[in-house]
Amino acid sequence: MPSLFERLSDKKGKDLRVLGDFIAIYCREHHQAEAKAPFPIKDDRLRSALGDKSLVLCQDCSRLFNHGTAKLLLCPYDPKPKCKDCETHCYAPGYREKVREVMKFSGQYLIKRGRLDLLAHYLF
Predict the structure, then answer these.
(1) What backbone torsions phi and psi does residue 43 show, to the nearest 5 degrees?
(2) By 3-state DSSP, what share of the chain in percent is helix, strand and coil, each rounded to 5?
(3) Listed residue (101, 83, 92, 121) closest to 29, CA to CA
(4) Diameter of the chain by CA atoms?
(5) Interatomic CA distance for residues 78 and 64, integer angstroms
(6) What is the C-alpha to C-alpha distance for residues 61 and 98, in angstroms, rounded to an integer?
(7) Strands (E), the chain
(8) Is 103 helix (H, G, I), strand (E, B) or coil?
(9) Domain boundaries, position 8
(10) Per-residue pLDDT tens digits for 35-82
């Protein structure tokens, strides 16, 4: 049986990069006082999907990214819809609201900092 990572589509890879980058922005801006560590990535295919960059996150943000990654990889839909438009909400209680908060903050952060190039890259 193929592993979940062997089935990682371009869309899921892009969604994973966006999730990681947005959580990293949120963590950097909201959790400056928290102890942080590199997010452990053991699979090379997952590492390449993230663009070979290291995510340095606090414990809470690491949990959020881990949960989001699991839900993204286990998504039964092909092609995968946007989570906000999906009929099946698979995030555990509390995580869905947190991901919404992270995405809203990070998107606004990129716009306010004039990084429309990055925002366009993430969205298109």
Answers:
(1) -100, 130
(2) 60, 5, 35
(3) 101
(4) 46
(5) 23
(6) 10
(7) 36-38, 56-58
(8) helix
(9) 4-123
(10) 888 888 877 767 777 777 788 999 999 999 999 988 888 888 777 777
What does the alpha-carbon distance between residue 104 and residue 71 come to, in Å, rounded to a whole number? 19
Distance CA 119, CA 79 (A): 22
Q: What's the structural domain count of the chain?
A: 1
In Å, how far are 25, 106, 110 from 32, measured between CA atoms? Answer: 11, 15, 18
Structure tokens that stand for 58 in this block: 């606090």
What six digits make up the tokens of 57? Answer: 């996150």
Interior/surface letters 93-119, b for 16+ CB within 10 angstroms, e for the rest: eeebebbeebbeebbebbeeeeeeeeb
Partners of 37 in the β-ladder: 57
Q: Are 36 and 58 in contact (CB under 8 A)?
A: yes
User: What digits encode the pLDDT tens for the residues 102-123?
Assistant: 999 998 888 888 776 666 666 6
Question: Which tokens in the block code for residue 64?
Answer: 């959020």
